[in-house]
C-alpha cells in the first residue's frame, strides 16, 4: 500500500478487509540464508533478516477483523424488518437516550453521519457566508467540507506536532471579528487541549463545535469529549470504534440549540410540527438517522466499553515499548486527556535514526513484516479542493479577491507540514488482540532499525 496520499478511509478499509498482514503465532524460521539485494550486501538469515529482503516476517496472520457482530445485531435487524416500522422511530429514540446517558450529555440528536452532524451544528448556530471558522489542518476533509458548504471560510490553525492535535495556543491570534465558530478535532481519539480552547472561546464569545467523530468515550478531565462545547459531533462510519456503517450524532446541553438542530436535520420540520402542520420557517435538509442504523448501534454499544478498555491497555503497553526505540515518538496526550479512545494509534518516525530510510520505505518494510501502517493525512490546507471552492460562483460572489488573497497568504502551517512527513498510523483494530500483538509491532520496528542501513541502501538501488 502506498504511503503517499493514502486517505484515512482507504487505509482503514484495507486493514479492516484483512489486507495481507497480521495476528497470532509466528511461523518457524526456515533453514538456510537469503542474499541481500546487492551481490555485495551481507547475507541475511531467514530468521532475522527483513522480510522485504527475503527474511521471515514477524507475523503472517491478520489482526482482528472489523466490525464485530453476532446474534445481537441479527436479532435487532430481524425484529425491525418484521415490524414494518422503518421510519425514524423507537430505535433512533432508544439510541439517542442510551448515547446521551453514556456520555453524560443532556441531549443527543442522531444524524445520518458525522458530516451531517457537523453541517447541522454549523447551520443551527447560524454560520453562513462571510463568516470564518477555525479548523485544524490535520483532520479528515469532512471537518472543512462542512464549513465550505455553509459558504464560510475555513481558517487553519497549525498542528501541535507532538500531540497531532490543533495547537490551541495559536487559536486566539487567528481570531477576527468575522470568526463565528471554533472546531477542534479530537484526532485519533485523543483530546485537543480543551482548557485552552474553551478559555479562548469564552473570552471571545465564540461557540465551540467539538469534532469528536474519532473519539467515542474519550475524556477530558473525566468528562466525555463532545459534552464540553456548544455541540459535540460523532461519526459511526464503518471504520469507527462505534459502528453502524454510516451514522452520526450531536450532543449538546442547550435545549434551544438541539431543537434548532432537529429542525434543520428534518427538512425544517420541528418536533412540535405534528400531523398536518406543514409550516416551515427556516431552511433545512434531510439528515436523519434510519431505524436500521440505530438498531445496529444499540447492539454495538453492548461491546463498546470492553473494546475501549482493551485498546487502552494495549496502547499503553505499545507506548512503553516504542518509547525505547530511538527515532519513534508516540503521540503525546495533553495532561487533561484522562481517556484516549484510540481510534488511531499514532507515532512520529525520524528517518535520521533509521539510517536515512525514507518513511515510505519504512512503511513498505513494516507491511512486509506483517504490520500494516499508513503515513496518515497530507496537508489539508494545501489540497486543491479549497481552490476549487474559492473559484466557484458562490464564493466569488461572496468574497473579494483581496480577502481570498489574504487568506492564501496567511494559510501557513509549518508544524503540520512537518507532521505530515513524519506521522505513522496504526488502526484501532490492531489494538483489539492479545498483548503479544503489541510485542510484534514493536519487535518489527526494532528489527527494521537493526537492518535500516541495508534497507536504506535497497530503497535507493
Name of the CATH superfamily of the domain at 71-298:
Type I PLP-dependent aspartate aminotransferase-like (Major domain)
Gross CATH architecture of the domain at 71-298: 3-Layer(aba) Sandwich
Average of pLDDT: 91
> What share of the residues does DSSP label as strand, in percent?
5-15%
Task: Detail the poorly predicted runs.
Answer: 1-6, 14-43
Distance between the termini: 20 Å
Shape: globular
Q: Per CATH, what is the topology of the domain at 71-298?
A: Aspartate Aminotransferase, domain 2
Q: In what order do the strands lie side by side in the largest sheet?
A: 3-11-10-7
Taken in chain order, the helices and strands follow as: HEEHHEHEHEEHEEEEEHHEEEHHHHHEHH
Give the strand tally: 15
Structural class: alpha+beta
Give the radius of gyration: 24 Å
The major β-sheet equals:
4 strands, mixed
- Give the CATH class of the domain at 71-298: Alpha Beta
